[in-house]
């Protein structure tokens, strides 16, 4: 077999199998190599901005398309080896750029609800949903990130805050607990 055909077949098969394996891992198990963890999670702001042209997906997309375009141009269309390498490289590069662009667009489709932090509620107004006892926890409803949230809360003044009372979040006490005080009208 012609050595260039072996190279094209190797690139085509390795690239195709790698992309299919990554797709299966992502769909079946939620494993996503390029996004840094489970595929359901939103990438953080820095990773979305720093998204690179070279990634797992784009490299294997290049290999796959390089192999298949090289095979087609050399074996089916009878181009010379040099011309088939030029065509295969061009097709691989175009597929790499298109996939990188598509992945960049898709990383923008995250819900603001995926990136909620309790610290985003400080100095915002909420409503007591579940009564807050003087020495215990209750729940407030508050809008953060464009969505209505329920957050565990304690009273800053150690007074009972009844359901329906408007409150202001004063600080974060624990990772998922805030301190609130009654809103003065």
Low-confidence stretches: 35-50
Shape summary: rod-shaped
Total number of helices: 4
**Termini, distance in Å?**
85 Å
Largest sheet: 5 strands, mixed, barrel
Question: Strand percentage, roughly?
Answer: 15-25%
Mean pLDDT: 84
Strands of the widest sheet, in order across it, are 3-4-5-7-6
What series of H and E elements makes up the topology? HEEHHHEEEEE
Helix/strand structural class: alpha+beta
Number of strands: 7
Measured as a percent range, the helix fraction is: 40-55%
The tally of domains stands at: 2
Oligomer category: single chain
Radius of gyration: 27 Å
What does this structure look like?
It contains four helices and seven strands. The strands form two sheets. The chain has a five-stranded mixed β-barrel with strand order 3-4-5-7-6. Strands 1-2 form a two-stranded antiparallel ribbon. The longest helix is centred in the first third of the chain and has 27 residues. By secondary structure, it is α+β, with helices and mostly antiparallel strands. It folds into two domains: 108 residues; 69 residues, Beta Barrel (OB fold (Dihydrolipoamide Acetyltransferase, E2P)), CATH 2.40.50. About 9% of the residues have low confidence. Strand 4 and strand 5 form a beta hairpin.
């Amino acid at each position: 077999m012609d050595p260039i055909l072996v190279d094209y077949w190797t690139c085509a098969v390795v690239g195709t199998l790698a992309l299919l394996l990554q797709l299966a891992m992502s769909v079946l198990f939620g494993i996503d190599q390029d996004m840094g963890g489970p595929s359901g999670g939103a990438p953080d702001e820095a990773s979305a901005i720093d998204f690179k042209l070279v990634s797992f997906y784009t490299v294997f997309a290049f290999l796959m398309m390089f192999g298949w375009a090289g095979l087609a141009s050399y074996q089916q269309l009878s181009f010379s080896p040099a011309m088939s390498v030029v065509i295969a490289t061009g097709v691989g590069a175009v597929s790499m750029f298109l996939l990188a662009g598509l992945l960049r667009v898709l990383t923008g489709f995250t819900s603001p609800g995926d990136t909620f932090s309790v610290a985003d509620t400080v100095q915002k107004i909420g409503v007591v949903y579940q009564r807050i006892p003087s020495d215990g926890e209750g729940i407030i409803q508050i809008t953060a990130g464009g969505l209505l949230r329920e957050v565990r809360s304690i009273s800053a003044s150690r007074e009972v805050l009844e359901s329906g009372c408007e409150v202001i979040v004063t600080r974060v006490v624990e990772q998922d607990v805030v301190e609130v005080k009654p809103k003065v009208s």
